[in-house]
Amino acid sequence: MSEVTGEKRQQPVVLTVDPDRLDEAVIEQAAAVLRDGGLVAFPTETVYGLGADALSEEAVEKIFEAKGRPATNPLIVHVADIDGARRLTNRWTESAQKLAESFWPGPLTLVLNKAEIVPDAVCAGLGTVAVRLPADPVARALIEKAGVPVAAPSANRYTRVSPTTARHVVEGLGDRVEVVLDAGPTTVGVESTLVSLAQQPPEILRPGMITHQQLQQVVQVRPHRGSVVDEAEARPSPGMAKRHYSPGATVRVVDEAAFRQALETSSESRGFIGFSTGDMGDGPRRVRLSLNPEQVARRLYAVLHRLDAVGVDEIIVECPPEGDRWEAIRDRLRRAAASVEDCRLE
Ligand code: TXA
Ligand code: MG
Questions:
Q1: pLDDT of residue 244
Q2: Which residues neighbour 159 within 8 Å (Cβ) at sequence distance 6 or greater?
Q3: Which single residue of 165, 195, 215, 315 could bond 271 by disulfide (Cβ 3.0 to 4.6 Å)?
Q4: CA-nearest residue, atom 19 of ligand 1
Q5: What does the alpha-carbon distance between residue 44 and residue 208 come to, in Å, rounded to a whole number?
Q6: Residue 219's pLDDT is what?
Q7: Do residues 89 and 119 touch, judged by C-beta distance below 8 A?
Q8: 162, 98 Cβ separation under 8 angstroms
Q9: Which ligand is nearest to the CA of 224?
Q10: Which ligand 1 atom sits nearest the alpha carbon of residue 123?
Q11: At 307, which helix (H) or strand (E)?
Q12: Would strands 108-113 and 128-132 be described as parallel, antiparallel, or unpaired?
């Protein structure tokens, strides 16, 4: 990484866009980069994505290189409408149609058997493809203008925390990306719910803010199994590797009592993230989130990025609440954490 080698990196071109008043010329500038096989980082409602033309093997390979991501971890393909998704699959199922009608555009990704046109590089040779129709107006305008489906993982280096602002993207990727569209902080804040429809019964491969209970109202879906699977056991999704979404600092999740105790013995090199604990004291290293999961999801990654920027070595996180709407947050914390003490995050 450049930070380690001291190699000087150029900055990408950052183009500001107002999601309420889209500047067509700016969107076209970014779309042209995609059509030419380049990389564009853009906002979605969940996190910023690092986009490339999904139908170009060469363009897609640039994503893996920029992220430092192993070729065995497949990408999500973003489309402008349901028809665009259907064209990427070889069998658009009834469940896919129902889920798409209920939750698209929105933070839900569907895994289905892939159509011939999708390059193997996108799907890591799995024979399935992950498709998503995002709700963010900038994302949708970009995909429409590009005229191609857009493969986009989160716009961060492999295993690091996903970006929820354009600044996070620039700090993480530098000029590994040509253009960054900046439309301010994302609104959902954690990655989409990933559901496999390429198996029976369908299963949640990655929890997100569209919850198991919400999905169940439309189709029968198995809940997320938890990401701590035996390494020897075949993982249904390669991205379910345990360590992921981690900041530079060591994250420790502890129960409320241990959290309160740690607050007493704080030092400069420690950051704190709480949920329920009343008075956490003051300072830039102490962040009290809330007991509302949607609010927490929106802020969580920005807080992890900020604590990293402040330069703490360790982040102590209070065990988050339980329940369907907390699943995504609990999953990301578990995967960010080096240790979990007296808190059931499974
Ligand atoms: O909200 C999101 O989903 C964001 C925004 C940018 O759309 N994207 C995102 O992409 O989180 P990424 O690449 O960081 O995570 C995609 C996840 C990975 O865990 C990957 O393994 C899984 O989706 N995935 C992609 N294609 C798959 C497939 N064919 N089968 C199973 N898992 C797949
Ligand atoms: Mg990611």
A1: 67
A2: 243, 244, 245, 246
A3: 315
A4: 239
A5: 14
A6: 98
A7: no
A8: no
A9: 1
A10: 29
A11: helix 293-310
A12: antiparallel
